[in-house]
Amino acid sequence: MSIGAVAAQEARKGALMKVQWPNGKVGYADLHPWPELGDHDLSTHLDALRAGKISALVEQVIWLAKRDADARKEGKNLLTGLPKVKNHFLLNDSTKLSDAMIKEIKSAGFTTLKVKVGKDVDQEAKFIARTIKQNTWLTLRLDFNAKVDFSQFERFMSQMGSAERAKIEFIEDPIPWDLDGWREAAKLTTIAMDNELDKVDPERLGSVGELPFKVVVIKPARQDVEAAKDLVSKFNLKCVVTSALDHPVGVVHAAAVAGEIKKILPNNSLEAGCLSLRSYKPNDYSSRIQVQGPYIQSVVGHGVGFDDLLAKVEWTPLKK
Ligand code: MG
User: I need a surface site. Which of 70, 186, 198, 267 has the fewest CB within 10 A?
Assistant: First the structure.
């Protein structure tokens, strides 16, 4: 078993998408909604597409598939020639971090651990404080997914001493978006913006004063990458490119975008979060991705790779 091989509790629903353009170009991406985070489910996206309506997630599928199609057409691999980006280690369930696992994480070369929190702030605060004390080599990123209110967030932070706070690189989506609340939260730690971004008009915010977040999480599967990149440059923010905890095709797409952004904005790019393969049981696709410690090294094939596997898929046309 590889480190953190925590298979999803139940199967998740997503679709590999093959997009064909009238000029004959073909590219691939994956559609992986998160109904838990407020997305419509898979069939709703596909039904809409069948009716000619393109959801925001499907728009990203098409954008990514176009990148793949262009690379395939040119006989290029999307990861070739890009700087390697180090990834954090993702911990979906803080109750599952054993001493043996943390040793393995360390020896694999990871130095940053991302932990999803927001279920039980007191228990999680104890866990985070203990993990930081016992592992001084480790930097932590926490993600509340806006699941708590300000008083719970404050209670969590009150349990972090200065030594712990110094080891928390940032906290993502601490509470549901609200400018004043986020400004208060930003007094307690560095805040990162992820899923709440679609509720914000950063252009307007910038004219009002300093942004309450210093880091933007860019998920190519979910967000307009060009707009996010502009936001990062305009306000000189840091960015973290992550997968959407989706199919290995999405992992390679995210890794390619992470490498490109690091190439263009080296001083704004933090460690990425594309290495989410361990969140699922290995499959034919995930085993093709060459991983070395915290780095995604390469994948064989054109575009995002997997040429032979994608050729074997029995595709179902959306329209009959
Ligand atoms: Mg997040």
Answer: 267
State pLDDT tens for residues 173-220: 999 999 999 999 999 999 999 988 888 876 777 676 789 999 999 999
Span 5-14, mean pLDDT? 64
Do 200 and 172 contact (CB within 8 A), yes or no? no
Whether 89-298 and 15-77+307-312 are alike in CATH topology: the answer is no
Instruction: Express each pLDDT in 268-277 by its tens digit.
Output: 999 999 998 8
What number is the average pLDDT over the span 45-67?
A: 96
175 Cα: distance to centroid of ligand 1 (angstroms): 12
Determine the distance separating the centroid of ligand 1 and the alpha carbon of 57, expressed in angstroms: 16
Answering whether pTM is above 0.70, one says: yes
Coil/strand/helix, residue 223: coil
Q: How far is the CA of 261 from the centre of ligand 1 (A)?
A: 19
* CA 55 – ligand 1 centroid, Å: 20
Does the structural domain 89-298 have CATH classification 3.30.390.50?
no
Answer yes or no: are the C-beta atoms of 155 and 136 closer than 8 Å: no
User: Torsion-angle region of residue 72: left (phi > 0), alpha (psi -120 to 50) or beta?
Assistant: alpha
Give the residue numbers marked as catalytic. Answer: 116, 219
